[in-house]
Write a structure and sequence with these properties.
Umud Fragment, subunit A, globular, eight-stranded antiparallel sheet, alpha+beta, 5 helices, 271 residues
Amino acid sequence: MTNALSSLILLLVTLFSGSLALHHHFFNQKSNDTPQNSTKKSETWLKTIRSMFPVFFIQLCILSFLYAPFKIPSGSMLPTLQVGDYILVNKSCYHLRFPYFNFKIMNTNKPKRGDIVVFSSTDHFAKLNDNLHEDMVKRVVGLPGDTIVYADKMLYINDELMSHYLIDKNIDTQYEPALQGMYPYTIDQQTLGKHVFQIKHYPITESITGTWVVPDKMYFVLGDNRDLSDDGRYWGFVPEDNLIGKVSYVWLNWPHFFKSWPTFKMNRKIE
C-alpha cells in the first residue's frame, strides 16, 4: 500500500468517525426522545467508531504534520542506511502540508547541505522509468545557485573539492546482486556542512562525469553509495515542492519479512 493511499484511507476514516461523533453530540438528546429502532449490534459498532475518533485524529495529525514511517528498499544509501531499515521522517522540518492533497500550508525551514531527505520522484525520473512515481531517499548535496561537478569519483561544490579519506575496504557479496559477482569496495568519510558521514565506492566501476548548476527552488541529491545510486546525476534536480521531510531516526531493520527476523539493535539517530 502506498503512503498516498494510506493517507487517504486514514483521512476518510477520521472524517467518518468525526462526523459520527458530531452527530451523536448534537442530536443525542433528540435520539433519546425517540424510539430506539436500531439493533444493539449496530449501536455498538457505531459507538466504537465514535469512540475511536480521537485516536484516528491524533494519528492523522502525527503522520500528516510531524512524522511518517518509510522503509529503505535498496542499497543506494549504504553504508548510512541499510537495506530494510525503517526510518522516521520529520515532515514538519521544511513545511506543513494538508494531508493527502499535498497542499502546502506554510514553510518552516530550508534543507541544509548534507541533510538526508525523502521526496517524491521527479517527472524526469518517471520518463526514464516507465512513468514510475515513488518516494525516494537521498542526501542533499547542491543548494539553489550551487555549481556541482562530479568527476573521477570526486565531488566539487562551487569549485571546492569535498575531500574524503579511506576508513575501510572489503569485498561486497551481500547487498549488491546487481554487480553479479564479488567486487572490492571502499568506505570513505566525508563532511558536508555540519554532517560527517560515510560513503561507499567501487574502485573498478566507471565514474559518471558531469556539471550541474542548481536552479532556484531546486536541490541536487546523491546517494551515499556513489557508484550504485540512481540520483540527480541521472535525472536532474529535486523541486522544493517534492520534498516530504528529513530523515531523523532508524527504528527497525527488517530486510525480508519471510527470510529474516526484525531487529532493534541497529536503531540510531540520523543527524
